Task: inverse folding
């Protein structure tokens, strides 16, 4: 398999819920008027706590400086595993559990922190730019390493570093953070960018204005539901993660859906903000799922992590993860 190191230099930021109106103009431009920007990588995820933004340096220029925004103090690079050649965006997604043992676990063993973004099309593993030499050496025996430069894929050199890395001591990774599973059912979907104008008003309402009482989604008394919506526009491809009720607001035949109409349940990881320096959180979750051969999407946000697993697997997933959490 190939590991592509994408050329986007990314910022990860959090916008407080009460400050979102200050940033709305820039976010709308990035999401709906991308032809008027030089941004190629943009993702916005709303959680009950905040909005998480992942955006390249050109896109970051579109956002205002505000006290309501916190920016992680590193530049991040996106890695993408591609099976059978081709490029990341038009290949079939590998799945986070398929790369758990070949990418995520080795990086955790070398104390490399990762930030995950699964989309409808593929999975992005974000690493700090300063960690790239160690990342490349860690994964070079397993993958053909390629870099994207000016849109062209070329062989990646190992940055002149050939030794000095100790073989890691492999240790168990018990789950140490609290887990919860909201009652929502989620859809992972996409739409044709050409249809974006036809649903722009609806999408803007969902992204920025649906957090009030009118967004009860038919379950005003269900306190176990959470607000979660993710929109990504990366290299021209759109990915959406939303709950089933939100998806039903869209016109028929606009959203891409699988033939099985598969729905996903969420596992939220973290009882308090996780931060960016702790290593192995993604590995703690993805390795047991990989062992059980359960597919999953994984979305890291500024404060918490989120795994999406098929609806029918949620009980076995929770059981397996809680078993890991007690094996300390």
Result:
């Amino acid at each position: 398999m190939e590991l592509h190191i994408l050329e986007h230099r990314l910022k990860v930021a959090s916008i407080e819920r009460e400050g979102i109106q200050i940033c709305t103009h820039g976010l709308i431009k990035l999401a709906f008027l991308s032809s008027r920007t030089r941004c190629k990588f943009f993702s916005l995820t709303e959680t009950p706590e905040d909005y998480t933004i992942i955006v390249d340096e050109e896109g970051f220029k579109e956002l205002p400086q505000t006290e309501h925004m916190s920016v992680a103090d590193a530049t991040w690079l996106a890695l993408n595993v591609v099976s059978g050649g081709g490029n990341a965006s038009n290949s079939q997604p590998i799945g986070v559990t398929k790369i758990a043992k070949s990418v995520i676990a080795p990086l955790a063993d070398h104390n490399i922190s990762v930030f995950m973004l699964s989309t409808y099309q593929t999975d992005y593993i974000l690493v700090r730019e300063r960690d790239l030499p160690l990342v490349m050496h860690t994964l070079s025996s397993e993958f053909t390493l390629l870099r994207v430069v000016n849109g062209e894929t070329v062989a990646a050199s190992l940055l002149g570093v050939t030794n000095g890395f100790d073989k890691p001591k492999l240790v168990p990774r018990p789950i140490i953070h609290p887990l919860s599973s909201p009652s929502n059912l989620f859809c992972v979907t996409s739409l044709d960018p050409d249809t974006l104008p036809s649903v722009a008003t609806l999408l803007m309402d969902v992204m920025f204005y649906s957090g009030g009482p009118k967004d009860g989604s038919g379950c005003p008394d269900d306190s176990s539901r959470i607000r979660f919506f993710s929109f990504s526009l990366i290299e021209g491809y759109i990915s959406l993660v939303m709950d089933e009720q939100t998806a039903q607001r869209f016109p028929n035949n606009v959203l891409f859906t699988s033939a099985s109409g598969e729905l996903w349940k969420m596992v939220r990881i973290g009882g308090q903000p996780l931060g960016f320096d702790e290593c192995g959180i993604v590995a703690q979750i993805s390795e047991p799922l990989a062992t059980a051969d359960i597919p999953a999407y994984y979305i890291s946000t500024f404060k918490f992590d989120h795994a999406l697993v098929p609806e029918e697997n949620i009980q076995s997933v929770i059981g397996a993860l809680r078993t890991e959490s007690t094996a300390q």
Notes: The first strand starts at residue 2 and ends at 16. Helices lie at 20-32, 57-60, 100-109, 132-139, 200-209, 244-247, 281-291, 314-326. Residues 88-92, 212-221 have pLDDT under 50 and may be disordered.
